[in-house]
């Protein structure tokens, strides 16, 4: 499959995901209207109960992980330290539940179907969801500068140029996909390699069998494979504009009911970040354990402290976010256009 064919296949998959989100939004709207009609006669009698319910909240937060039960970063650190939920108590939050998802599309569907209040995930699925009409607000960029490692088979290509005429795997719809396509374009190899859709869980075996010559791996997996003797012939951090970012979004429904929550969440995140930077070894022990008990050196390389910006938004982070949005637009992968500024929460 050529890289152009990959883009067409990726478009079909994303459009299917967008269609699912749009359909869920439509059904949710219809259900809400019907519920409002059915409940109008008893609304006044339930006012007191509704107000009482609105003062309490079990905050359901989705994040992307195949192993960890907590996000690796200041949010997970605050939860582990026992400071997250108590700090939100004044807003009526009685419990914070972190729920792992294997990918962005499934997290988007959980947001639109009302199963989640917040999402911590990659910029690409968040942008696609918003363009499809997913009613979210962007409250921060929790990670800026996610690295990727382009790993090859042992005794395989030793440079990006040597990938000419080979097959490369990638997990579509991730920042790894954005990195790979940008790298191939920079190196003039877009038309000279075959890019195949391969889930990250199957990538190592595909490299070892020789099915593909290279694969871009994310944090955790990339450094682990390098430690096992697999060469990394390129890294995203060595190319301006090709690293990934992670975002935090909340549903508009949550904001309407708890308008103070986004700002409070960012304050807690900032305090937790200060604490983990003051205790880096303890944080890396947490990161190593959460990543499946990887060696401490792997955790340190995967999650450098400067990956987590102090402020909710930075010029570098917003530049990367807009660049990713433009990439998606150029590939006709956005259902509609929107301004990042309109998506951001005011006064984060």
UniProtKB/TrEMBL annotation:
Classification via Gene3D superfamilies: Periplasmic binding protein-like II
Lineage top rank: taxon: Bacteria
One Pfam family hit: NMT1
SUPFAM superfamilies: Periplasmic binding protein-like II (SSF53850)
Domain SsuA/THI5-like, first and last residues per copy: 106-282
InterPro entries: SsuA/THI5
This protein's name: Aliphatic sulfonate ABC transporter substrate-binding protein
